[in-house]
Amino acid sequence: MGDAEELHEAEMYRKEEDGSVTCALCSHRCHIKEGRRGICGVRENRRGTLYALTYGKISAEAIDPIEKKPLFHYLPGTTTYSLGGIGCNFRCRHCQNWEISQSDDFSHLAFLKVEDAVARALASGCRSIAWTYNEPTIWHEYTREMAARARAKGLGTVYVTNGYITPEALAEMTPHLEAYRVDIKAFTDDFYRTVCGAHLDPVLASTKQAYEAGMHVETVTLVIPGMNDDPEDIRDLCRWVVRELGPEVPMHFTAFHPDYHMRDTPATPVAVLERCHAIAREEGVQYPYLGNVFSHPAQHTHCHACGALLIERDAFHSRTVGLENGRCTACGETIPGMAGKRG
Ligand code: SF4
Fold it and tell me: Does the Cβ of 37 fall within 6 Å of ligand 1?
């Protein structure tokens, strides 16, 4: 990057009298001194102005099945044009995308204009755009502009997020965002503090805000043996989802594989995931799923009312067998999220 003139000024920050700035994009609310960057590493204070250093900078571009996000109740069986940038506001010790999320080197990244990205999504036949692979909140200006354009062109829009966005930043995204695929990494603040360098409450707050704003919400919990798989914590999480969101919100429990700073922690046994699934069912979650375990029956979708098989899944491939216009063909029940995008 060259001069400030070439840079993209950030939004959602306050200039302080001493030349520092306060960023209001995520719940870290970094106070950034002149010449420094926020925790995410991609927003920098230069002479009292905050810049979004990675605006338009692309680290990854792919056409993915929407099921890979994972989203099982939003435009099922379609592909999503997936974009990732660089950096993250979390420091998860088990990050499975750490090469891009924990990097602050974006000098080599290609620039992709908003209009070109939307055109590529349309040309590829995708039904939606997903900002994924790294945290989209820290890409706010770029993703908001693209989401607005995408919606205007009839595309769906997806945040695959850690949920640390502030209420005001999420409010700005809300008119343009249809699906909020949020990690709830654990149900204890201790886990968030010690493993992710963050806190639990803002994640729950943003998830509830997204749900109440009418977004399609699905949660993902990467289950790590001995760290966040306590049955009572899983039960509390499920109770929170049912009580504060609704029983129809799909919950994904996915298997951990050793990575990054947690290479000595064993992979999650399937039995542990199955226990999470059973707890979710006991607590009234209508659509609990298992992930990162292929060809498991808990990846299929069954009607919550009559139990009929609606969608079969194998890895990221899905086959609709009992669903028509968002309704179960056996009993006629409306299946949450399946009817398509919100208005
Ligand atoms: S996005 Fe979050 S981590 Fe980055 S500068 Fe703003 S408040 Fe800090």
Answer: no
**Is the Cβ atom of 91 under 6 angstroms away from ligand 1?**
no
Residue nearest to atom 2 of ligand 1 (CA): 26
Residue 4 has pLDDT above 80, yes or no: no
Residues 224-240 have pLDDT tens digits of: 999 999 999 999 999 99
What pLDDT is attached to residue 2?
A: 40
What is the pLDDT, as a whole number, of residue 6? 67
Q: Report the 3 state secondary structure along the chain.
A: CCCHHHCCECCCEEECCCCCEEECCECCCCEECCCCECCCCCEEEECCEEEECCCCEECEEEEEEHHHCCCCCCCCCCEEEEEECCCCCCCCCCCCCHHHHCCCCCCCCEECCHHHHHHHHHHCCCCEEEECCCCHHHHHHHHHHHHHHHHHCCCEEEEEECCCECHHHHHHHHHHCCEEEEECCCCCHHHHHHHHCCCCHHHHHHHHHHHHCCCEEEEEEEECCCCCCCHHHHHHHHHHHHHHHCCCCCEEEEECCCCCCCCCCCCCCHHHHHHHHHHHHHCCCCCEEEECCCCCHHHCEECCCCCCEEEEEECCEEEECCEECCEECCCCCECCCCCCCCC
With a 6 Å cutoff on the Cβ, whether 28 touches ligand 1 is yes
**Predicted local confidence at residue 286, as pLDDT:** 97
Q: Which atom of ligand 1 sits closest to the CA of residue 137?
A: 1
Give me ligand 1 centre to Cα 223, in Å.
26
Q: Does 203 contact ligand 1 (Cβ within 6 A)?
A: no
pTM of the model: 0.95
